[in-house]
Design brief:
Oligomer: single chain
């Protein structure tokens, strides 16, 4: 990161192009008939984000490893149901719709030609890249994601918020600590503890059986954090119900490893990249060629106009 002192916008890129893929008709196709709905939808989304929020810096954060071995070693069920093919000694292959997979290299090529910083780090998920950029930022941070996991980074004091798409790619919920407290009863710091107690079937996280979201929020309000809850299990005078004490005691092996899995890394070895929002494309010839080859039309033209405004 070089001189990131202004507003930094971090894109959870896979989350957004998945959303674009399912939200934009597959009838949008390149001249050769290849679907480009995810490509065009993502470009339209970035155009809207840049136009509405005018970040000084923009990074498209990528999943170099969507299911890191170090997380799977701690919780083997982590994202296991989404594995299409296992690869010994390398990242497993994620189950992705057949007509989306070919669009991902196009998205990467277009972002590179535009000069939008694109960062993925071997052995880490995009969430970890986002967590590290956020930790190092000197100014306000907008995290754009459809994934609730990143609510744990919300921090009003540091002006870190999550822009969460709630309808297609046009309507965003601006999530700050007030929104988290109203909806979940915790702030950003407490969200990771809430998530690991509650569990998340979409990520293969079992949680603590019998401890749902509301109970988890009440326990965190009572005992402060996960460490306080675990300490309360050993304290006969604590106000845990007998069933809660039994369930939490039985879940100790899970609770010992879950924090490392659920909490995003903040120490990823980021490459030295220029995150400045480009005003003109890095490679105009490549942009023109990609636009024509893939029929990106108005989506690409609008984004170019917004970047140059």
């Amino acid at each position: 990161m070089r001189g990131v002192t202004g507003r930094l916008m971090l894109l959870d890129t896979a989350s957004l192009y998945f959303r674009a893929y399912f939200g934009v008709p597959e009838s949008l196709r390149a001249p050769d008939g290849t679907p480009v709905n995810a490509v065009r939808g993502l470009l339209d989304f970035i155009d809207r984000l840049v136009g509405d929020h005018r970040p000084d810096h923009l990074v498209a954060c990528m999943d170099a490893d969507w299911r890191p071995a170090w997380r799977v070693e701690l919780i083997p069920s982590y994202k296991a149901h989404r594995v299409a093919e296992e690869h010994e000694g390398g990242p497993d292959e994620e189950e992705v719709p057949d007509t989306l997979s070919p669009q991902v290299p196009v998205i990467e090529a277009v972002l590179d030609a535009l000069g939008i910083a694109r960062v993925g780090v071997a052995g880490y998920e995009a969430d970890d890249v986002i967590g590290t950029f956020t930790a190092r930022a000197k100014g306000p941070v907008d995290i754009v994601t459809g994934d609730r996991d990143l609510y744990q980074l919300v921090d009003d004091a540091r002006e870190v918020r999550v822009l969460h798409p709630v309808k297609g790619v046009g309507t965003l919920q601006i999530t700050d600590e007030a929104v988290l407290r109203e909806k979940y009863g915790v702030d950003g710091r407490g969200y990771a503890d809430l998530a690991l107690l509650r569990g998340d079937p979409s990520d293969g996280l079992p949680g603590v059986p019998g401890i749902g979201e509301k109970t988890a929020a009440r326990l965190l309000a009572e005992f402060g954090d996960l460490a306080g809850i675990v300490a309360a299990v050993d304290d006969p005078a604590s106000r845990l119900t007998p069933s809660q004490r039994k369930r939490l005691d039985a879940a100790r092996p899970y609770l010992a490893v879950a924090p490392k899995v659920v909490r995003v890394a903040t120490d990823v070895p980021l490459p030295d990249v220029d995150t400045t929002l480009p005003r003109a494309p890095r490679d105009p010839a490549a942009v023109e060629e990609l636009g024509a080859r893939w029929g990106l039309g108005g989506s690409l033209r609008r984004l170019l106009g917004t970047l140059g405004a």
